[in-house]
From TrEMBL:
PANTHER family per record: AUXIN EFFLUX CARRIER FAMILY PROTEIN, TRANSPORTER AUXIN EFFLUX CARRIER EC FAMILY
GO biological process assignments: transmembrane transport
Domain of life: Bacteria
Chief location category: membrane
Record membrane topology: Multi-pass membrane protein
Family: Belongs to the auxin efflux carrier (TC 2.A.69) family.
Keywords: Cell membrane, Membrane, Transmembrane, Transmembrane helix, Transport
InterPro entries associated with the record: Mem_transp_PIN-like, Na+/solute_symporter_sf
Annotated TM spans: 6-24, 36-55, 67-90, 102-123, 129-150, 170-189, 195-216, 228-248, 254-276, 288-308
The protein's name in its UniProt record: Uncharacterized protein
Annotated source species: Alteribacillus bidgolensis
Length: 311
């Protein structure tokens, strides 16, 4: 049963986060060291997980169409998440500036750092591949609409589109080529790729542990209490709404399970980086990423359980 099988990986992630906090507590963690962890995750571990899915997935009829469908669905649901997040924030009287940041942290989830490794652990290589397609769709909304929302004076430029050309995106294109042309790579390369892919979960959760220490040291304007409603929206309300929506489709069971898990993911780990760069507010990103990730240890199994009752 998927509900029971998800408890183990979530517990392991929680333990690794605690280890990350202990490391940060007993060692000096600089901005450069945090950026190094993010760089390894984005440029090595996550791309290798995506490729590992292609190398170890049996090509079957309908796989490419499933990837395209999940990609399109991810674009639509991510855009809907931002819109509802913004509406939700304004309804609860957040200022215009804060409402945009709330939409950012409550509308988009950690589908790359946590979602892809979790789907790989639960569903194997094919699950990772489907999760990567979802993450790619979310990435398009992230680096276009979401970035535009949080900037005060946003002006469209080709530079914003260049951010879509990144290692995870390139790796999913490579994965599609491997699947389409049934490319067989040397076993040594496949093993090396698999070892690098296994770095994803430990590094991602170690980084969350480091952010916990950063959060405890911050004394900014927005308290954790003020983030309670946005986090509830991100982890409970919006995933529940998504469950209702996909229950009306004829998607395969695996596709529905992957979508549920991806939508139920906490605020993205790189939210502090992006909010610091585009909105000059790292604090809200750190607190949202940390608190939502801790809460997700409990809410993700609940959402999966809820989904199992619909299909």
């Amino acid at each position: 049963m998927i509900f029971l099988s998800i408890l183990g990986p979530m517990f392991i992630m929680a333990v690794i986060s605690v280890i990350g906090y202990i490391i940060a507590k007993t060692n000096e963690i600089t901005d450069e060291s945090k950026q190094l962890l993010i760089s390894i995750m984005l440029n090595v571990a996550i791309p290798c997980i995506i490729l590992d899915g292609a190398f170890n997935t049996t090509v079957e009829n309908g796989l490419l169409s499933q990837l395209v469908i999940i990609f399109i669905f991810a674009v639509i649901i991510s855009l809907l998440g931002l819109i509802l997040g913004l509406f939700f924030a304004r309804m609860f009287n957040y200022s215009s500036s804060n409402a945009k940041k709330i939409a950012f942290i409550s509308g988009l989830g950690n589908t790359g750092f946590i979602g892809i490794p979790l789907c790989a652990a639960l569903f194997g290589p094919k699950g990772a591949l489907l999760a990567a397609a979802f993450d790619t769709g979310l990435g398009i909304i992230l680096f276009t609409v979401a970035i535009a929302i949080i900037q005060k004076d946003y002006k469209f430029s080709l530079a914003s589109l260049k951010q879509l050309i990144n290692p995870p995106t390139i790796s999913i294109v490579m994965a599609l080529l491997v699947i389409i042309f049934d490319i067989q790579l040397p076993e040594l390369f496949v093993q090396l790729n698999g070892m690098l892919a296994s770095l994803a979960t430990p590094l991602g959760m170690l980084y969350i542990g480091i952010l916990i220490k950063v959060m405890l040291e911050q004394k900014g304007a927005m308290s954790i209490r003020q983030l309670t409603l946005p986090i509830l929206f991100k982890l409970i309300f919006f995933p529940a709404l998504t469950i209702v929506l996909i229950s009306l489709t004829n998607f395969s069971l695996l596709m529905k399970q992957v979508i549920i898990i991806q939508v139920a993911m906490p605020t993205m780990t790189i939210a502090p980086v992006l909010l610091a760069r585009y909105a000059q507010d790292e604090e809200i990103g750190v607190k949202a990423a940390v608190v939502s990730t801790i809460c997700a240890i409990w809410t993700v199994p609940f959402i999966v359980f809820l989904g199992s009752k619909f299909f």
